[in-house]
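Quick note —
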Amino acid sequence: MTSAVSSLTIRLLEEGDLELLAHVFRFSRHHIEGRWRERLAGERTMLVAERDGEALGSVSFGEREEFPRLLYLFALAVVEPFQRQGIGSRLVVSVEAEARRRGVEGICLAVAVDNEGAIRLYERLGYRRTGEPFISRWTWYGPDGETREIVERCYRMVRRLGSGGRLIVGKRVGHPRLKAGHQI
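Predicted structure written out below.
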């Protein structure tokens, strides 16, 4: 295990992290604030991977009505110099741990068909493609407050975590056991 992974902390994103994430991932402040508004609206929970106070990666997840027994993982990002060192895997495994705590059956995600590195990562972690590629739409937030819809051709990938699970339709808020500053 590399030192980047062995000394890594995975925790909930806090509002004070927004400027750091905007800088590290070269997102506009508006983009990060848009993600934060989505988090406040209950549309996403965000985790950050950090080492010595430096953000190295992040991931979002949430519950979606169209996937009632699955947790939806999205927006996985690792700072380029730290890619392929296990940080993305640790973030995904942290989301899986939260899915188990919630009692859902598995994880669902969409990955761009041309994102070969991410596809390899997810397949190595046990995710399988389901169905044919589809068109995914998401919102990009620009530096001056503008928004743009991004359209990508994606694969849907799913990893089942076991039997059981509970129906989670309609509830799209963070888990009560996950509080700000909580480490996973």
